[in-house]
Amino acid sequence: MGGQGSGQHWRYGGKRTTDDHHALDVRKLQRDGVLAPGYTCNWVWSVNNREVASIGIRSTGTSIILSYRSRRGGGEWQGVECPVTIEWTPCHYGGQRAWFRCPVSGCGRRVAILYSGGVFACRHCCDLAYESQRESGPDRIARKADKIRRRLGWKPGILNENGWKPKGMRWQTFDRLRAEHDVIVSTALEGIARKWRLLGW
User: Fold this and answer.
1) What is the pLDDT of residues 113-132, one digit of tens each?
2) DSSP string of 50-70?
């Protein structure tokens, strides 16, 4: 994988997706106050409440310095310090929104998310597809249903039973989300059934 400033796009045997990499979202950093000048922290990624990766972040106000370890292939781990420019744009209703400038030489795209690799970079420089681009129509619909199930605190998977109203959620909101979920699930199951019939099942 090329290092910072290589200007190369990184290719894999099969095109990976954004879900295969750790994502650094400038909107989350802004909400958490990480972009304030002089702010220093250790940003952590977790799966099932278990830390799987971390990165040091130091803000100057106009940029952040990412500190982490990387290696090529099976080589030795080496420390990396990657400066990323922060650009601010005004919002329609006041305030400002932060953006990353992709640090790869020759790119500089203004993006909200950078993805992990030899250097943190935009989706285009990492040559990543969105996971939804790999999905069939029924799969994409089922993913929409799971998005609602997560909001309701229900177990993911359209074949699982529906749960109860989350504590504190208004009944009107719950009824709307449940109805939307049920329509999506019905559409997904119809699509899956048609697919199986086409395959001769």
Assistant:
1) 998 876 788 888 877 665 55
2) EEEEEEEEEE-SSEEEEEEEE
3-state secondary structure of 115: strand
144 Cβ contact list (under 8 Å, min separation 6) = 184
The model's pTM: 0.55
Tokens 């019905």, residue? 186
User: What pLDDT score was predicted for residue 171?
Assistant: 94
Return the beta strands (E) in 16-112 as ranges: 23-25, 40-47, 50-59, 63-70, 78-90, 96-101, 110-111
In Å, what is the CA distance from 91 to each residue of 82, 98, 101? 28, 10, 18
Measure the CA–CA gap between 96 and 62, rounded to whole angstroms. 13
Phi (first) and psi of residue 173, to 5 degrees = -65, -45
